[in-house]
Amino acid sequence: MDPLALAPHVAIFPFPAQGHVNSMLKLAQLLSLSNFHITFLVTVDTHERLLKNTDVLSRFGSGFQLQALPHGISMDNVNTRDGISMLYHSLSVIAKPFLKEFIVNSPVTCIIADGILSMADDAAEEINLPIIYFRTISACSFWSYFCIPELIQAGELPLKENAMDFTLTKVKGMEDFLRGRDLPSFCRSRDLTSPDMRILMFETQQTPRARGLILNTFEDLEGPILSQIRTVCPNVYTIGAVHAHLKTRLPKSTSSNSLWQEDESCMSWLDTQPPKSVIYVSFGSIAGLTREELLEFWYGMVNSEQKFLWVMKPDLIIGQERKDEIPAELEQGTKARGYMTDWVPQEKVLAHTAIGGFLTHSGWNSTLESIVEGVPMICWPRFADQQVNSRFVGEVWKMGLEIKDTCDRDIIAKSIRDLMEKRKGEFSQRMEHMASLAKRAVNEGGSSYINLNRLIQDIRSMTPPLKQT
Ligand code: UDP
């Protein structure tokens, strides 16, 4: 008998940004290896980009369906003032009814929804369909989001004037080191009723409604915070790092889930560089820089006299053409020691022997990819969960340096020199240790390996609800 005939059918519904799509697609592939049917629901933009820039259809077998949601949902304006509320409005009026109809008409066993799309739970509840959330951020940032109501109740939020460096007392497990400036960026607003804040707080508080919570992390990295989370969500599946997990279970996989065309030529440039001599620089898929910030970073990099590989997405500079009047010394410094490109195969870049450091915006995927490859970081967080990740990298895990809330060429140059030269030994020792724990977690017998098997068994034991007539 065809094994797919009896296989569970999981509908996976990610938030439509690169980092979310990437890790949830990796989970989809991991589940496919157990012969699950998967329907992966994405916006029209993401659908087109995945088909254009990846081999997503040929990589999965016949049990995989990439399903576009109806038109009208887009990430295009997400960086604007009302961007997030506009996006949520369109998700609610377009994606939610579509999902509802889809699950009513298909024999779906369960939904795995992004943990910030609780509208999926509303749809699932009506037909009593099990739902599991996948929150694609770190456990530490999830927990700090979850504790926001307590911070408000204790009067620690909104942050008092000049209190950015005060340690907060109401995020359990972080009382010794979490400052105002380390909270998710939305908490900086004096107005706690801002739409972004309301949406993120609401979505996070919905998490315990689901049957379980999947996190892209591993026990050795975030154990103490995971214990806190388990007090409110007892069924947590830590299965990360998912990209490393996929490589363990499918060693030949070189799968990319990039929404943009990857420039492979940077790999040939890296091949010509000595080991651990290049700092890789990327601010992820969403964050933008002002022209002033761009110049500070550029001067910092050139003045550090280290080699650098810099991802400069065409839309990185907010409202400006990136090549507008760039000082000649920067052009020359870049020619001598740098390589710039629009978008790279990041996992491969970080795994390259020439890479010795990562100047990052501290997005969670980037952070995990760096940890798995043992690459120390300089953290310059931009928004949302990045502030929390950056604090953990710098202060708790001591895997690099934090330059949060500064943007100064001298600080940047000094941090790069410290990371790549002066404190290199200290950081590499810690990174190597954590990288080996990360690898152990996803190999047979490791915590993430066991948790993924448990997730697979739990889904297998779910029976689809009877079809409504
Ligand atoms: N990425 C990539 N090529 C690049 C820059 C980033 O493939 O040139 C990938 C990176 O590997 C990561 C994702 O984009 O998986 C970014 O996710 P992250 O959570 O770090 O940040 P976000 O883009 O969501 O802010």
Name the descriptors.
single chain, 469 residues, Rossmann fold, 2 domains, seven-stranded parallel beta sheet, 45% helix, 13% strand
What fraction of the residues are assigned to beta strands by DSSP? 5-15%
Give helix % range: 40-55%
Q: Count the E strands.
A: 13
User: What's the end-to-end separation, in Å?
Assistant: 29 Å
What is the number of helical segments per DSSP (H or I, 4+ residues)?
19
**Structural Rg:** 22 Å
- Backbone structural class: alpha/beta
Description:
The structure is a single chain. The chain has 469 residues and is of the alpha/beta class. The chain folds into two domains: 9-255 and 440-460, Rossmann fold; 265-422, Glycogen Phosphorylase B (Rossmann fold). It has 19 helices and 13 strands. The protein has helices at 18-32, 44-53, 56-59, 83-105, 119-126, 139-146, 148-153, 195-205, 219-230, 242-249, 265-271, 291-304, 328-337, 346-351, 364-373, 386-396, 409-422, 424-442, 447-460; strands at residues 9-13, 37-42, 64-68, 110-114, 131-135, 212-215, 236-238, 278-282, 307-311, 338-341, 355-360, 377-379, 400-402. The strands form two sheets. A seven-stranded parallel beta sheet has the order 3-2-1-4-5-6-7, sandwiched between helices. The protein has a six-stranded parallel beta sheet with strand order 10-9-8-11-12-13, with helices on both faces. Strand 11 (355-360), helix 15 (364-373) and strand 12 form a beta-alpha-beta unit. Helix 4 runs parallel beside helix 5. The radius of gyration is 22 Å and the shape is globular. It starts with 8 loop residues before the first strand and ends in a 9-residue tail after the last helix. The mean pLDDT is 93. The chain binds uridine-5'-diphosphate. Uridine-5'-diphosphate is lined by residues 17-19, 22, 258, 282, 284-287, 311, 343-344, 346-347, 363-366, 369.
